[in-house]
């Protein structure tokens, strides 16, 4: 059940348990159902016979003509006659009759087939009587009214009634099982959804923190459940520690980057002065290596300072109508001069293309993409940059035919401080492409990467096109 939501898993487990329980209940019902109905039938039979005993009586003497004409009169018997009062002959499948000791039916019903009607009368014993394909329960009770056993009340019930009742109960049970399972599943899902609602809200708060990179935000929940409160307190404590650690890291990064810029600038200046002198070859090589590493250190410090400023990007950088064509063109020119790059940069930049953006961030984005392209290309490699209008977007593309990037690395290279060093001529700071990704996100643009190892890479950024004179919807 990997990939399913917790509420779905709870619902499934609840349904499985319910089905198992219902299956056990059905099995128990199956095994004891017939016994229960048999006991109920015998109890009904006994109650019917005993209730009818008081309704049959022997009266001494001769009956008058009115009694003889009454349906209560059963006929002469001994020195008197027999009459019934409120005698019930058929109730809930139980039939009762009044008999002489010879088996003659005086009143009521007889369900027994002809071949079993000579059945001997036995006092107060429920018997099972087989009659062909049918089976009956039979109970006999004598009427004691001065004649002591000469008149009997016999009750009988067909066992087929028990089986019919059991089968009806089975069918009813099986009919309601799907409905019960469906209804229980809906109730379980709604209950699980309600129970996990605080978790959904916690997840939403965490997503907000992650999306807005705002560690000062705290998880909120009005749930009084102990488990939920424990999770919320633990998360807020963790975010508080992360915020303090992050603030300390930012402060340290800014201070160190700022303090080191002057020493690095002095080292670079002195190195350049030394290289102007006539130096032995091994000494010159040493100074050139110092200059190279110093330039790399300067790039890292600039990236760290840029990263620090990007942490407050909405407050630090404001958007306005920007001629991105002029910004990209001038950035390419200054980049080639500052980096003293001898390789050729192929440019295809259309004029007067506008976006709603920040010039400083766009310059940083272009510099980082160009730096990345030249850094991981051969000395005779090809690097190109283009800027053009494509429908509703302004498309910036930077391509190279360098070493390329493995597929599994492409999703991670925009993460903070992530570096792919294996197979590369020199490692980066791990900040350049993070700055690119952050800048793209701030400008509500779309970033794509097409890269194959050994064939090179193409970074594509699609900016929403700015219609000149249109009011800015987002000013940062």
Secondary structure elements and pairings:
Elements: H1 6-53, E1 56-60, H2 65-69, E2 73-77, E3 80-84, E4 90-91, E5 94-100, E6 105-108, E7 127-131, E8 134-142, E9 151-158, H3 160-195, H4 197-212, H5 226-275, H6 281-310, H7 313-316, E10 320-323, H8 324-338, E11 345-349, E12 354-357, H9 359-375, E13 383-390, E14 393-400, H10 432-442, E15 446-452, E16 456-464
Helix pairs in contact: 1-3, 5-6, 6-10, 8-9, 9-10
Order of helices and strands: HEHEEEEEEEEHHHHHEHEEHEEHEE
Radius of gyration: 49 Å
Q: Uncertain segments of ≥5 residues (pLDDT<50)?
A: 472-476
> How many individual domains?
3
What does it look like?
There is one protein chain. With 476 residues, the chain is of the alpha+beta class. The chain folds into three domains: 6-167, no CATH class; 208-311, Signal transduction histidine kinase, dimerisation/phosphotransfer (DHp) domain (Helix Hairpins, Orthogonal Bundle); 316-464, Heat Shock Protein 90, CATH 3.30.565. The chain is 49% helix and 20% strand. The strands form four sheets. Strands 4, 5, 6, 7, 8 and 9 form a six-stranded antiparallel β-sheet that branches. Helix 5 (226-275) packs antiparallel against helix 6 (281-310). The longest helix has 50 residues, at 226-275. The chain is rod-shaped, with a radius of gyration of 49 Å. Mean pLDDT is 80; it is low at 472-476.
């Amino acid at each position: 059940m990997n990939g399913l939501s917790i509420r779905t898993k709870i619902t499934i487990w609840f349904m499985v348990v319910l089905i198992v329980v219902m299956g056990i209940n059905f099995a128990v019902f199956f095994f004891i159902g017939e016994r229960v109905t048999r006991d109920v039938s015998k109890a009904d039979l006994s109650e019917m016979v005993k209730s009818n005993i008081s309704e049959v009586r022997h009266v001494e003497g001769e009956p008058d003509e009115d009694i003889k004409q009454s349906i209560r009169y059963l006929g002469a018997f001994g020195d008197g006659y027999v009459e019934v009062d409120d005698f019930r002959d058929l109730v809930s499948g139980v039939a009762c009759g009044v008999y002489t000791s010879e088996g003659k039916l005086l009143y009521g019903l007889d369900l027994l087939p002809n071949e079993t009607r000579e059945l001997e009368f036995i006092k107060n014993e429920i018997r099972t009587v087989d009659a062909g394909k049918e089976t009956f329960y039979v109970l006999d009770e004598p009427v004691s009214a001065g004649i002591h056993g000469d008149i009997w009340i016999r009750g009988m019930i067909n066992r087929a009634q028990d089986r019919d009742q059991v089968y009806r109960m089975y069918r009813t049970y099986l009919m309601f099982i799907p409905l019960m399972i469906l209804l229980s599943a809906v109730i379980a899902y709604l209950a699980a959804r309600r129970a996990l609602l605080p978790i959904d809200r916690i997840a939403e708060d965490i997503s907000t923190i992650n999306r807005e990179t705002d560690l000062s935000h705290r998880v909120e929940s009005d749930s009084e459940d102990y488990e939920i409160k424990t999770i919320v307190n633990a998360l807020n404590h963790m975010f508080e520690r992360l915020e303090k650690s992050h603030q300390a890291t930012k402060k340290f990064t800014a201070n160190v980057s700022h303090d080191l810029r002057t020493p690095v600038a002095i080292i670079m200046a002195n190195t350049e002065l030394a290289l102007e002198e006539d130096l032995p070859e091994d000494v010159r090589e040493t100074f050139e290596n110092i200059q190279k590493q110093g330039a790399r250190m300067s790039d890292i410090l600039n990236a760290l300072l840029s990263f620090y400023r990007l942490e407050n990007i909405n407050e630090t950088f404001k958007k306005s109508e920007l001629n991105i064509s002029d910004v990209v063109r001038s950035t390419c020119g200054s980049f080639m001069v500052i980096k003293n790059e001898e390789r050729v940069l192929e440019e295809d930049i259309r004029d007067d293309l506008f976006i709603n953006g920040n010039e400083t961030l766009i310059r940083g984005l272009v510099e980082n993409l160009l730096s990345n392209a030249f850094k991981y290309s051969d000395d005779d490699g090809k690097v190109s940059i283009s800027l053009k209008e494509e429908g509703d977007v302004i498309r910036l593309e930077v391509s190279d035919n360098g070493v390329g990037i493995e597929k599994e690395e492409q999703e991670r290279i925009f993460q903070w401080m992530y570096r792919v060093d294996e197979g590369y001529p020199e490692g980066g700071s791990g900040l350049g492409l993070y700055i690119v990704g952050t800048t793209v996100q701030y400008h509500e643009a779309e970033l794509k990467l097409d890269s194959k190892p050994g064939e090179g890479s193409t970074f594509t950024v699609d900016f929403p096109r700015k219609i000149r004179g249109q009011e800015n919807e987002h000013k940062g």
